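Fatty acid desaturase 2-like (Brachionus plicatilis), 335 aa
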Amino acid sequence: DIDESGASSDQKHKTFKWDEVKQNKWIVTENLVYDVSRFSRKHPGGERLTLNHAGQDATDAFSCFHTDMKKVRKYMSPILMGQVMPESDVNPNEERKTELHKDFQNLKLLAEKKCLFKAKPIFFLLHFLQLVLLDLLAAYIIHKSGFANWLAYSIAVACLVIVQAQAGWLQHDFGHLSVFRSNKMNLFVQNIIIGGIMGFSANWWNYCHYQHHAKPNTIKRDPDIRFGPLYLIGKVVPVEFGKKKMAKLPYNLQQFYFFFTLPLLLIPIYFEIMWISIYLIRWYAMFVPTLGLMGTIKLYFLVRVFESVWFVWSTQISHLPMNVDYDKDLSWFRS
């Protein structure tokens, strides 16, 4: 017999202790043990996303990342090993883990009951149209004034910066599969926005961003805090650099040189030809006839620098006040 979790009666009778799970680097969801050693290479979210949870309970992250649980369990059934003995889990880094897990599940059910996860497509449509209008306004201003009027040129730059920054937040929601019921439709629209409007790769962004949400603020797990040796954030890494005498820069001044260095690192170097070519063709048609090729390149870098400062300043707010540490196998909600 197979139940809703995909477990047969024989598999449910096999029990493992947490020591065995950790030793074999298996993954646990809803007290069921899965051997992901081979499957991780085929995982749609990337191998690293599954291996970062090796030997741990990934229940909360697992349930939040997957929208079609029936389909997911179908794929996981062949790698199901058995059940874990919950009482064998002893983590010195965390207290009241079971209570926290229950609280998180109750909070999630309450949010679903209040329809907080139900998006309104009309809002996202209006947001998208706003970006298109600002983009066209910038092109019109550049076409009429070029470099001749610096005030008009600055207004055009401001419009383009707003488009780039706001497009980043807009594609974020589609990348999280939060707008439409169809995952394919969400990813299609995300590609239009991040590829056609921003000139970035959707696959690259999703690959990095999913890792961030799976292990937020975890050293060597969260790409959003992987800044060394240029910048050191949190309390743990600076101490490590100090003890190992690895300091190569005046980190006491990083809040100043951040503005001149990090924005340039965000200029996209990952290319998916079909989508990003839309972005390049669009900019060529909008600005090269008026500004010339070099003028358009200057405009591109100017907009990208301002947009990158805005983007990093906003996103790092969710990291800097939080505890940044190594993976201590804490509950996903607690991290």
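DSSP finds 13 helices and four strands in the chain. Residues 121-318 form one domain. ok done for today
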